[in-house]
Amino acid sequence: MMLIYLGAFTLPSLLIYQKKFFAAHKKLGKLHLETIVTVAAACTAAAMVPNRLPKLSNILTYIGLGPLTLKDTFLLGLNYPMQSGFNVLIWTFFTICGSLGFVFLLLLFIHSITTLLKKLKQSPAQAKKFDKPALPRPVDSPPALPSSEAWLLTALLISILGYISILSFGHLFDRYLLPLYPLTLILISLFVPSNSDFDLIGRSGKALTVILIGLFAYFSVASAHDYLAWNRARWDALNHLTSVQKISPKLIDGGYEFNGWLLADKNYQPRPNKSYWWVDDDEYLIASGPLPGYQEIARYPFKRWLLIEEKPILTLKRTKKD
Q1: Where are the beta strands (DSSP E) in 51-134?
Q2: What are the distances in angstroms from CA 321 to CA 139, 216, 263?
Q3: What is the pLDDT along the chain (322 residues), one digit of tens a residue?
Q4: 3-state secondary structure of 315
Q5: Is the dihedral of CA 91, 94, 95, 96 positive or negative?
Q6: Bond prior to 54 in cis (omega within 30° of 0)
Q7: Which residues, 6+ apart, have CB-to-CB distance to 304 below 8 Å?
Q8: Is 56:168 a contact under the CB 8 Å cutoff?
């Protein structure tokens, strides 16, 4: 799953790498290699589609960014926005891209290890010859970093594979993968000559790269907007309760951030049927939809930029004592 995520987000760069990889292995038969990669990616995608991304929890969710840390959504699994057909299609496409990137990542790691082993077996004279740039570079350009730098390949491989191994032993959140992305991009860059340009990957590769970058940009901006809008609506509801209606925070379950900010207590003992985030009494509840035993007393709508069902923030009041 970690490599699927990593492959999905680094795929634009991996497309350039794989073109150079195939070009460097013509003797193995380019068509043969591409067939293997295509079949492997298709099989991986077929296995992954029933478990579409985003599979790891916390930051990246099918409705955008960030966990909705309210009792109904976060603890009870209720009142989440419904996925549209377009939403399912996008995540399916992204899962397939991740599967393709997964195969390219495996090729990249194998290629890196093979190159490193060859480098370590070379004599100093051979290494010096191997490190010589294939093409002269302009005087004013920075020196090209040879792909055979043993120390750099070793550091990158240990960092990436070691980090993945450590993460495999504990509970994994998607945000824990962030350090892997720049390390992987550096590793990719070692095997793409500095004189390569965007035309290297061909028309179909360029189209896929542009589509991916466009989707990344749209999702990043729109999902950040939606999460901020959701938070503004939630805090508007809470500020109205505490500042206008003068309701004590001890009577409110306003979500993890609200109760944690105002009522955190290391000696707090979780209570049955109440959220674990320092709730004394949940006479008032902030939620994304209706809940049994509560009536709606206020509604705070907000606009989404992602194509997701819009569900307003509700202020609920208990109709009967627990």
Answers
A1: 60-61, 64-65
A2: 80, 47, 22
A3: 898 999 999 988 888 877 776 666 665 555 566 677 777 778 877 777 778 889 888 899 888 888 899 999 999 989 988 877 888 888 888 888 888 888 889 889 988 898 888 888 775 555 554 454 444 444 444 444 444 578 889 999 999 999 999 988 888 899 999 999 999 999 988 887 665 555 556 677 778 788 888 888 999 999 999 999 999 999 999 999 999 999 999 999 999 999 999 999 999 988 888 999 999 999 999 999 999 999 999 999 999 998 888 899 999 999 976 5
A4: strand
A5: positive
A6: yes
A7: 64, 222, 225, 226, 229, 310
A8: no
| Burial of 201 per CB tally in 10 Å (0-12, 13-18, 19+) | buried
Distance of CA 19 to the CA centre of its chain: 25
| Beta bridge partner(s), residue 287 | 314
Polymer length of the chain: 322
CA atoms within 13 A on the CB side of 94: 24
Q: Do the Cβ atoms of 132 and 162 come closer than 8 Å?
A: no
Cβ neighbours around 42 below 10 Å, total: 14
Contact 94, 12 (CB under 8 A): no
Name the nearest CA neighbour of 302 among 288, 314, 312.
312
d(CA 147, CA 153): 8
pTM of the full predicted structure?
0.79
Q: Which tokens sit at 66?
A: 């960030």
- Neighbouring residues of 10: CB distance < 8 A, sequence distance ≥ 6: 101, 105, 181, 184, 185, 188
Query: How is residue 194 written in tokens?
Result: 């500095």
d(Cα 180, Cα 3) in Å, to the nearest integer?
A: 10
Cα-trace Rg, the chain: 26
- Is residue 284 within 8 A of residue 247, CB to CB? The reply is yes
Is residue 76 a contact partner of residue 122, using CB atoms and an 8 Å limit? no
